[in-house]
Amino acid sequence: MKRIIVSLLSLLMLFSVPFTVAGASNLTTEQKFDVLKQKNIFTGFADGSSRLYESMSREQLAAILFRLLELPSTLSSPSYDDVLKTRWSYQEIEAVTRAKLMGGTGNKVFSPMQNVTVEQLAAVFVRSYGLSGGGSTPVTGTVSKWARGAVSLALDRKLIPQLSDYTMDASRALLVEAAYAVYEDTHVEPLHVRSVEPLSYQSVRVNLQQWTDNADISRFLLKDNYGNKRSIQQATLSQDGMSVTLWTDRLVGGVTHTLYVDGVGWNYVTIPDDTTKPQVTSMVSNTNRTVEITFSEPVDTSTATNASNYMLNNGLKLTTIQISSDQRKVIFTTSEPVDGKTYQLTIRNVKDLAGNVMDTRSDLYFVGSNDNTKPKVTSVQINANATITVKFSEKIRPEYAVLNDRYSIDKGLSVIQAVIDSDGRTVTLKTSAQQDATLYTLTIANIPDMVGNVMDPSTNWRFGGVANPGSPIVLQSVQPTDRNTLDVTFNRALTDTDVKNFKLTIINEDGTPVAWTDWQSYSRRKWGSDRAVTIQFRNKETNPNLFREGHVYVAKISGVAELVTTNNADRYTFAGTDIINRDPFVSQVIALGRKQIKVMFSEPVKNVDESAFRIREKDGGTVNIDFDELNDTGKVVTEVVLRLVDELQANKTYAMTFQPNIITDAAGWNGLKTSEGSNPYVVYFNGM
């Protein structure tokens, strides 16, 4: 029954989107029907058609739920007089009845041929969760009196869309879309892990070989070298879907831990405890007398909310203070400021979670404002490439303007990306696939101006769909992976020529032009992604500190064909990092057989040759290597298979060490890690 409820939750959530599901497969509804038909979940009609736009009957719904949720069938007496054992849907109807998913329409009457309405779907699904009574969302459309509470509860949870008539029939197309999404959700592929990389004493990154959109925290388990389970508090999927960052409880530095990803274990050594002081990275003041301070890392609540650690001049007083749930932002209110007057803020004695005390900051200034004018939308325009340009009456807060949930479109169309222009007043929206000859209505809400005035909802912005737009390349992000390496991500796949001609220039650092003297770069397609480029820099140093934490950089991209450059779309502002570019290292060794092992690296490497490796029994003799199966030192790889002369023995532990000046990173600048302090770097593995 638990599986039924979980699956129904997925099904119910997806019924709120008629024909387009954000994040789901790009298949058409007809193609999804064909897939489900191959899986024997749908059967189709005798003439082979799907009849997607016909209404669905109660027995059709029962049959799909029966097959999709794999409900058990047992021999029993008929529960309904109008569903005899000879009826094709008898077992299915009996199964959903026993599971209490559906019931009869009268005394021993199921009405198998009766159509299913939207309000009936709402009632079935809400009842599945044990909910009763009414919800908080007003029901403005036509609805039966008995179903009003269930419809309101379903609307609260966005289980069904807002409609003008909830008594209308639900189509088979709706059922196909929902059933396909549930099928995908219940057939999750294991994550294909490339490497596990510690980022701090409380975070570790799982680098993937293939893209994923599922980073559920339940897929990960962490244990220390004593077998004790350690808490994983949060799992965050990267923008490109190629890595997952896990936030853990405080771990002791220098200790080997095992991270299990979908049941497969990966060893890594924790980074020593944090000794970096917290820093103020931004300050924003609003007209409602609030000031928002953002720190570089989570800070201690007791010191961050201590009013004596904040001082204001010119007679301005601090009245309230609070901290955000992620403990990185402190928000306080003040007495009434004088419009246009400059105030100085001094912050001191705030600690991070490791107890490091910040350096006193007395260089923070803001201007008092009594601006109470709310921003408005002045125009909405659909473009030839199917993007939507939204213009506002004044500059708006960029961190809110780029949130997709601030924009809603009817008829199942969803906003999948919002980008604010450098003028601070123009936002470009990218949507899911639009339909030709279709009129859409856009609503925009909950976006504040630069001083905090929140707009009133702006509705009834209409535009016609563009079904087959061109496909220009749009720069999506520039993200430092360490102090001298950047990942640059685009909206679609790059050609080999694009990657070959790719060029990135740092225009300025903290507003000051950057001198490029002695800078060199190495760029390649990001491992596991066709939409991203990794570019590594060096000057006179192999691993220079180019992108420093606390500093802001502006990058400009060139060399990519069809790159959108209007309104500085080829530029991207990013912050530096304190992560150093570590030498590549062997992250894991796995025995594939008695005379075959796989060696996995922490990042793409080249110059791989069997002479770089040494193997011995942990407390015994040497194991000789015959050859590496790659046999190509110029190829960039993340793993290699070694063939052995000597056989490995089961239940024995082996140690692998590494020779210097052979294997390098993909750029050829950093050699493979061969030592740990004054001792050789060793990776242990078991025979089989």
From TrEMBL:
SLH domain location: 76-139
Alphabetical UniProt keywords: Signal
InterPro entries: Cu-Rt/internalin_Ig-like (IPR014755), SbsA_Ig (IPR032812), SLH_dom (IPR001119)
Signal peptide segment: 1-24
Designated name of the protein: Ig-like domain-containing protein
Organism from which the protein derives: Cohnella silvisoli
